[in-house]
Structures are given as structure tokens and as C-alpha cells.
């Protein structure tokens, strides 16, 4: 789906505040210039809007449409309060492409467990890259360690 820029509607920060104040949300996804799927052209991410919405709502923001965004865009959105980035399109492509790549390299191997392992390893590598890119490397271990010290 493609929406022309002049037809797109971005979330009003004050509306976002009213919405989040009225509900007990774990996360909030709103329109800030990103979209699901691969981009046709450069997305116009409204960083000022991301910051303002996060400042007003105090609710973790989920960013729609992370696939294809630059490392700089991720870093800036996260610095402004983005707590979750959706990269489902990227995951789907890696999942399918890893199957195709495995089958091309092993055309006579129809053992599902080896094919699934190839897909698992490819997705795992992709996730490791994104975890580092998003600033999450070693944070799970640090969090678990803090829990054990508190107990």
C-alpha cells in the first residue's frame, strides 16, 4: 500500500496524550512518518513529533515500519523515546531468502530439520544485528543480574 505524502495524516501529540491518558497501555504505536513494508523512496520521519509524543504520553512508543530505515534513523528515534521497532518485513524476507539460499546450495537435501535450522540461523543473525543496532546488546544479562542482586 502506498499513501501519497499529501494524503498521510500523522498523529497529533495532544491527541496521543489524551488517548494514552484514557487507557492503561503497555505500548503505543502512532503515525510519525514510517510505514510497514519496504519504502518506495526515502521516508519522511518526523523526529520532532516522536520526541513530543514521548514527552507527553510517557508510554513506550512502538515504531511502525522499521524495515529499510537507516542506522541513523533508528538511533535518533530510539534516543527520542522509541521503545520498540517493528521489523517484520525484514524478518519475513530473511526467513524466505534463507530457505531459497539453502535449497540452491543443497538441491537434493529435503530434510526439513536442516532447512529449518538454516532459516533459524539466518533469522538469529539478523536479530543479533538489530539488538546491537538498537542498543540492547548485553542489556538482558545486566537486567537479570540486577534482579538476582535485589533478591
Please give a quick description of this structure.
By secondary structure, the protein is mainly alpha-helical.
Q: State the domain count.
A: 2
C-alpha Rg (nearest Å):
19 Å
Largest sheet composition: 3 strands, parallel
Structural class: mainly alpha
Distance N to C terminus: 50 Å
- Lateral arrangement of strands in the main beta sheet: 1-2-3
User: How would the global form be characterised?
Assistant: globular
Number of DSSP strand runs: 3
Helix % is 40-55%
Give the topology string: H per helix, E per strand.
Answer: HEHEHEHHH
Number of helices: 6
Strand proportion, as a percent range, falls in 5-15%
Mean pLDDT: 90
Description of the molecule:
It is a single chain. The chain folds into 2 domains: 1-86, no CATH class; 87-151, no CATH class. It is built from 6 helices and 3 strands. The chain has 151 residues and is mainly alpha-helical. Helix 2 links the parallel strand 1 (28-29) and strand 2 (61-63). A 3-stranded parallel β-sheet has the order 1-2-3.
List keywords for this structure.
single chain; 151 residues; mainly alpha; 2 domains; three-stranded parallel sheet; 3 strands
